[in-house]
Amino acid sequence: MAASNSTSFLLSFLISLLLFASMQLFRTQLASNQPMTIIGGFIGSLVFISLLTAVSNFEMNTFGPGYQARIIPEVITCLFIAMICCGLVHRVCVTTCIIFSLIALYYINRISSSIYGNAGVPATGYATQNLLSNKKKQK
After folding, report:
1. Residue partners of 67: CB distance under 8 A and separation at least 6
2. Which residues contact 121 (CB under 8 A, 6 or more apart)?
3. Alpha carbon of residue 102 to chain centroid
4. Mainly localized where (predicted)?
5. Cβ(41)–Cβ(13) under 8 Å?
6. Residue 20's closest CA among 76, 85, 83, 80?
7. Element (H, E) at 11
8. What is the pLDDT of residues 121-133, one digit of tens each?
């Protein structure tokens, strides 16, 4: 059974805080060698995903169930916060966080498109005219 928007907001926000706290707690271990900095960047991308989930669920709870997270305010803000969290650990964590976060964002978008359809593409007059002219040609 799926959780409601408010429950999912609360859980994902708590997960992001827990991940941030664990990154700060194990800062010296994450910055000790190269594989650990890559793991730190991966944990930072998990912070990004959980923050994006929290923000999206908060907006869906506030503005209605049809509201979608957009790239400019929500995604970039959550990515910036995750980069700051990684920057407090190590510089390389920021780079790997960006890479892992963009890969995760691609797959999240792909899954969302397959489940909810491609509702984000607005219909233009040109596309409507082409559809009408193709229907006329078929008759």
Report:
1. 59, 60
2. none
3. 8
4. membrane
5. no
6. 85
7. helix 5-25
8. 555 555 555 555 5
DSSP string, 15-36: HHHHHHHHHHHTHHHHTSSHHH
User: Residue 107's Cα: distance from chain center in Å?
Assistant: 10
Q: Which positions ≥6 away from 8 have C-beta within 8 Å?
A: 53, 54, 57
Length, in residues, of the chain? 139
Does the pLDDT value for residue 54 go beyond 60?
yes
Helix (H) or strand (E) holding 97: helix 91-116
Per-domain residue ranges of the chain = 5-138
Which tens digit of pLDDT belongs to each residue from 94-137?
999 999 999 999 999 999 999 888 655 555 555 555 555 555 55
Report percent pLDDT > 70 for the chain.
83
